[in-house]
Design goal:
single chain; mainly alpha; two-stranded parallel ribbon; 10 helices; 2 strands; globular
Length: 229
């Protein structure tokens, strides 16, 4: 299966036991996943704030403002008052947010390890600089990758956006994270070309979903022919 709509809906409806039963029947309940947002100690990094507020009005400020809100209730996420010391880019040794490439290189030593990319409905994942960097690192480490999408319909609405991936146009919660990633890329144009091929090219991560354009062209030809009769 390449879609996760059923599983997501069960979680959203609170039907956890039903989901566990389905996973057990499929022999998948004991499969182990590394999920960064759970595995990285958020209390040592970002739990106490929403990230620096962009000073200029515009898209970046709108995205920052939106990121502070619960996607369902639209209420502000509560901030944590744990008081644990925070380590970010200015403390590179203690920081846990800057080591995804080392972690992926370590995990790649396990032949059974794979990289699962679960796309959101609007494919916002492909506009986040950390996510693209992670996909590229998995390819560089020769880690097998698989993509799941919500359902077959969601890709139609965003297909035109997927044809033009540029890491320079992507965003990060913290601008310094984006600056650091871009600075680590020797040739950004070459990187973007390789990234586009990796995601959208023949045999790319989304190739089995993105023959929609050819199908639409063929459908249009069929309609035109039908109208001619």
């Amino acid at each position: 299966r390449h879609c996760y709509a059923e599983e997501a809906d069960l979680l959203a409806e609170g039907k956890v036991e039903e989901l566990k039963t389905r996973l057990l029947e499929a022999g998948m309940l004991q499969r182990v996943y590394w999920v960064c947002c759970f595995s990285v100690n958020q209390h040592a990094s970002i739990c106490g704030g929403y990230g620096p507020e962009p000073q200029e009005p515009g898209l970046r400020h709108e995205m920052w403002a939106e990121s502070r809100l619960n996607t369902v209730s639209k209420e502000l996420y509560p901030l944590c008052s744990c008081g644990e010391p925070k380590y970010l880019n200015n403390s590179p040794v203690q920081c846990e947010l800057n080591k995804f490439d080392d972690m992926m290189a370590l995990l790649s030593a396990d032949a059974s390890f794979g990289h699962l990319v679960a796309m959101d409905r609007k494919f916002v994942l492909l506009t986040r600089v950390w996510c693209l960097a992670e996909i590229a690192e998995a390819e560089a480490s020769q880690i097998p990758q698989k993509v799941l999408i919500y359902d077959d319909r969601c890709i139609d609405a965003v297909y035109h956006k997927l044809k033009h991936l540029d890491i320079r146009e992507c965003e990060a919660t913290r601008q310094e994270d984006k600056d650091e990633i871009l600075a680590s890329i020797p040739d950004i144009d070459v990187f973007c070309g390789s990234l586009q091929e990796l995601v959208m090219g023949n045999g790319g991560l989304l190739s089995k979903f993105t023959d929609h354009e050819a199908k639409l062209r063929n459908a249009a030809k069929f309609v035109r022919r039908a109208l001619e009769f």
